[in-house]
């Protein structure tokens, strides 16, 4: 059995909120940047940043999962049904995040080109892995992004329900509040 | 009954052969549909369509082709850059889901002296059909080393993207696309 702690690790708290901010920003930027005018100042910059931040978040999420599995977590709260749903949603959010990273990566690397991460380093391509790769990966990336936002909304509703209706510490402990009864 | 069927088959076969004496050799990739467009007015960007098929009618020794039909799968656009190709397939440009094929059907071919000709025909692209004129010439014809007979032509034309309802703004230097066509047909 997994060890149980009083609250969340500060590393996980930081990554959680950083990921939340990034996911919403990336979603908005992603929808906006594909309709940019060719002469827009952002035409090249926005996709470059979107890809750079996406790959950095992918790396961070790998570390996050490892950290999360190694460290104790606070107990799940709520009814058995709520706990099961929460676990399922959390698992799906992780799966969707990774699907998003992979599909995004596959769009830009379909022709063998590497992806430059802020001109700091380049993530190499595996080449074309299947036919119509950039189009198929592009559609998947688009629909997964919307699905993720949908699940995150459910996640937020759940957190607010714990906080305002059940009046438990679910949300508080993700804000780093210690010594909760 | 057998005779009738045979005669019918023969007639059908003959009429098909007449309408399209030569099949464009896309199988062996001895044909290509290339395009180029100015980038910002500073250089040319080139690309091609990888998947197309067609046929033309041509009489040995004639100065010109008499008929050309080509069908292009628009999704096969290839400018050697996956992200750009994805954009070109999308609804800002070719909208390949809605318009998976572009076609060219010649309506009139005039001989302009020597091996030169003007091929006028209907180009359907992005759901819009317009008449275009291709300046073409015969490159050569003759037996191939494997028992067949081939004839090849090259042609050029240019189209305004706006004429075909593609109005994404690529800048004032990039409103027209030049098409460079090379076709080699194998006699049937």
Low-confidence stretches of chain B: 11-20
Quaternary status = heterodimer
Shape of chain A: elongated
CATH topology of chain B: Lipocalin
Organism (chain B): Alteromonas aquimaris
Domain Lipid/polyisoprenoid-binding YceI-like (chain B): 21-186
InterPro entries (chain B): Lipid/polyisoprenoid-bd_YceI, TTHA0802/YceI-like_sf
Signal peptide (chain B): 1-19
How would you sum up this structure in a few lines?
Chain A: Pfam families: Ni_hydr_CYTB (PF01292). Chain A is mainly α.
Your description of this structure?
The complex is a heterodimer of chains A (181) and B (188). Chain A has 181 residues and is mainly α. Chain A has helices at residues 10-33, 42-70, 80-108, 133-165, 170-174, and strands spanning 115-117, 121-123. In chain A, α1 runs antiparallel to α2 and α2 (42-70) packs across α3 (80-108). In chain A, a hairpin with a 3-residue loop joins β1 and β2. Chain A has one domain: Up-down Bundle (Fumarate Reductase Cytochrome B subunit). Chain A contains 5 helices and 2 strands. The mean pLDDT of chain A is 93. Chain A is 66% helix and 3% strand. In chain A, 13% of the residues are buried. Chain B is mainly beta. Chain B has a single domain, classed as Lipid/polyisoprenoid-binding, YceI-like (Lipocalin). Helix content of chain B is 14%, strand content 52%. Chain B has 2 helices and 11 strands, in the order αββββββαβββββ. Chain B has helices spanning 2-19, 82-89; strands at residues 22-24, 32-39, 43-49, 52-58, 65-73, 77-78, 101-111, 116-125, 128-143, 149-160, 176-187. Chain B has an 8-stranded antiparallel beta barrel with strand order 1-4-5-7-8-9-10-11. The radius of gyration of chain B is 18 Å and the shape is globular.
């Amino acid at each position: 059995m997994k060890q149980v702690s009083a609250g969340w690790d500060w590393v996980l708290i930081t990554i959680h909120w950083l990921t939340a901010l990034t996911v919403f920003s990336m979603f908005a930027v992603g929808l906006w940047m594909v309709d940019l005018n060719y002469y827009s100042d952002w035409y090249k910059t926005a996709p470059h940043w979107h890809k750079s931040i996406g790959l950095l978040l992918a790396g961070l999420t790998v570390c996050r999962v490892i950290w999360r599995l190694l460290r104790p977590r606070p107990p799940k709260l709520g009814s058995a049904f709520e706990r099961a749903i929460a676990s399922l949603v959390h698992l799906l959010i992780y799966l969707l995040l990774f699907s998003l990273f992979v599909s995004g990566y596959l769009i830009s690397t379909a022709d063998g080109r590497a992806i430059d991460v802020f001109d700091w380093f380049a993530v190499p391509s595996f080449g074309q892995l299947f036919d119509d790769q950039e189009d198929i990966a592009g559609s998947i990336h688009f629909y997964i992004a919307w699905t993720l936002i949908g699940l995150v909304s459910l996640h937020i509703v759940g957190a607010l329900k714990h906080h305002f209706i059940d009046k438990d510490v679910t949300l508080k402990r993700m804000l780093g509040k210690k010594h909760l009864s | 009954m057998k005779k009738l069927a045979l005669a019918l088959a023969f007639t059908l076969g003959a009429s098909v052969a007449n309408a399209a004496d030569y099949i464009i050799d896309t199988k062996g990739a001895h044909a290509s549909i290339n395009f180029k467009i100015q980038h910002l007015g500073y250089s040319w960007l080139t690309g091609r369509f990888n998947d197309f098929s067609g046929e033309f009618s041509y009489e040995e020794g004639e100065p010109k082709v008499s008929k050309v039909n080509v069908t292009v799968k628009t999704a096969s656009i290839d400018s050697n850059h996956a992200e750009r190709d994805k954009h070109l397939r999308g609804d800002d440009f070719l909208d390949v889901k809605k318009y998976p094929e572009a076609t060219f059907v010649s309506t009139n071919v005039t001989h302009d002296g020597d091996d030169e000709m003007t091929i006028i025909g209907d180009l359907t692209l992005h759901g819009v059909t317009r008449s275009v004129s291709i300046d073409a010439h015969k490159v050569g014809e003759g037996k191939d080393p494997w028992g067949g007979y081939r004839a090849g032509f090259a042609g050029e034309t240019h189209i305004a993207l706006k004429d075909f309802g593609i109005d994404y703004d690529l800048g004032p230097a990039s409103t027209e696309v030049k098409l460079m066509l090379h076709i080699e047909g194998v006699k049937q």
